[in-house]
Structures are given as C-alpha cells and as structure tokens.
Amino acid sequence: MWRARRIFFPWESQGGWRRFLALAHLGPLLGLLVAVLFLWTLTRREREHSAERRTLVALSRVKSAVVRYVVDHDGACPERLELVQPLTGKPTLPVDGWGRQLRIVCNPSISDQDYVVMSDGPDGYPGGLDRIEY
Known about the structure:
By secondary structure, this protein is mainly alpha-helical. The chain is about 45% helix and about 10% strand.
C-alpha cells in the first residue's frame, strides 16, 4: 500500500526551533574560523618572505664587502666574516632575516666560484636545502 511521506521544515524535525537556531549559529562561526586561518596563513607567508628579503639585502652588503676585501688582499678569500665586517659599513656583524650569522665559504665544492656568501636559511642547518647563497 502506498504511504504518503510527510515533508518537514528544518525546524520541525528532531530538536525543533532550538536545534535549528543552534545550527544557524555555526555558519558565521565557521566563516570566522576560515577568515582567521586565511589571515594567519597570509601573515606567516609575509613574515617568511620579508625574512628572505632581509637576508638578500644582508648577503648583497657582505658580498660587496668580500669583493673589496679580495681586491685589497690580492685575491685572498676571507676565512671569517669578522675580516670583512669593517668593510660592510655596519658596526655589528650582519645577520640573516632569522637572526643568524651569515657565512663565507672559500673554495666551495658545490660551485666554480672562489667564495660563496650564504645564509643557512629558516631551519638554520649549515648547507641545508633551504639555504640562500649569493
């Protein structure tokens, strides 16, 4: 025998008006949560990019100081950053965007250059995959 189905409005099914209104409050809360996560992701990415930009500025400053050192010392590569620090024009040793000291590698095996000025990157591991070289 054919049985007629009853159609319920959302507030008529289990729980009534109280449950329907509780579900209506979840939408704005979920939207707010998505907006907060989106803004958090944007600020985190911007912090990472600004640290990379600060690192590139510090590397270029040190690189030009190393070039001046090499010219002044008949092609000798500076073994330590302290040797080129007076040529950078800054009173302290330059650091990368994450607050770590930059490094000078003379006669690197990974490059055909005489020296490489590098930052260890965000993770801080020497020679890591996220290092920044100049």
